[in-house]
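Standup notes
- DV: blocked on the single-chain target, sequence here:
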Amino acid sequence: MKLLANQKGIALITALLLTLISLTIVMYLLFMITSGVKLSGANKRYKTALEASYGSTDLVIKEIIPAIFSKTIAVNAYTPWDNSLSLLYPPGMDFTANTDTCLMDKITKSSSNWGPACSKSPNPKESPDFSIKLNSTSSDPFTVYTKIIDTICSDKRAYPTGKCTGSDLSGYDQLDGGQGTTGGAAGITVQSMPATYRIEVQGERTTNFSERSKLSILYAY
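- DV (later): unblocked, structure below
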C-alpha cells in the first residue's frame, strides 16, 4: 500500500507525456506543410506542361492542319508538307512534321483505310505526326508530341476526287452576315460537312519526363 501511495516521479512522467504529445503535433504540422509544398510544386509543374500542350495544340489545329488543307489537299497534291508551311511558326521554334504518306492518309482517308504502317496507338510519342520543342529562358525546354489516331471522313470518295471533308478549302471567309437565313435569295447554301479527327497530345519536359500533361482532342475541319 505504501508503494502505491508513493507519488515520487509523477511530475517527470507527466512532463514526458506532454513533451511526446507536443512533438507529435509538431511532426504532424511539419508533415502537412511539407506535403502542401510538394503538392503546390507538382501542380505548378503540371500547369506549365499543360500550357505548353495548349499552345502547341493551337498552332497545329488552327494553323498547320488548315494550311495543309488549303495549300496541299485543295490543289490535289500528294506531299503533305512543303517549305512554305514553315513560315507558319516563329523562328527559333524546333518544329518537325512527318512528310510521309501516313500523314497524308490520316488527313484524307478514314482510319480503316490508312496504310498498315500508320500508327493508331494512343501514345503521342510513338510515331508522332508533329513535334514541337518550345524553347524557354532556362535550359530545359518542353517538347510537345501531336498525333492523329482516328479519322472520320464526311466525303467518302477516294482522294484526290474526295477531300475527306466537305468543308470549303479555298481559305476564303464564306460567312454572309446572316443573309442565308434573313435574305430573300432563292438559292440554298450547301451545308458544310466537316471531317472529324481524334488527336492525342503530350507535352513534357525534355529532360524530365515526369513533368508532363496529356490532351485528347476532337477536331472537326
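- Follow-up: The CA atoms of residues 166 and 190 lie 10 Å apart.
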